[in-house]
Every structure is written in C-alpha cells, then in structure tokens.
Specification:
Elements (H helix, E strand, L loop, with lengths): L1 H9 L17 H11 L5 E4 H5 L5 H7 L4 E4 L2
Parallel strand pairs: 1-2
Helix pairs in contact: 2-4
Protein name: UspA domain-containing protein
Organism: Aegilops tauschii subsp. strangulata
Length: 74
C-alpha cells in the first residue's frame, strides 16, 4: 500500500483513496470487480506484479471491471 501511495504521489495525484479487502474464498479478480462495481469507482490501480505472478487475471479484469485500470510497475 505504501508503494502504491508513493507512486500516485510521484505522479501528481493528491486526492485519492486506497482500500484493501480480503476475500473469503473468492478469486482476487472477482473481489476487485465486485468492489469497483459496488463503490462505482472511477479508477482501479493495481501493481503489475499482481498480473505477472498470476494472482490476478488480466483478461478477466478487462472484461469485468466497469472503469479504467491503471497498472503500476511495482
């Protein structure tokens, strides 16, 4: 979280909120899509490491997240 906060600040973002949510047996991609939809988010920010490590399915993200996704090289 602190690394994401740093990257956003370095990029000039001053007003943003971060959240972390644990899923109860759900896949991370489903949790991200659910939160993005429930909170009507304007932007989802993820680490590229989540995609590279296969924790999050990039194809499903693109299909089910209703807002833009910013991938940070962490």
């Amino acid at each position: 979280m602190s690394s994401i906060r740093w990257h956003l600040s370095e990029g000039g973002f001053t007003e943003f909120g971060l959240m972390e949510r644990l899923g109860e047996g759900k896949k991370p991609t489903a949790i991200i899509a659910e939160v993005a939809d429930d909170l009507e988010l304007d932007l989802v920010v993820l680490s590229m490491e989540a995609i590279h490590s296969k924790q999050v399915d990039g194809n499903l993200l693109a299909e089910f997240i209703p807002c833009p996704i910013l991938m940070l090289p962490l």
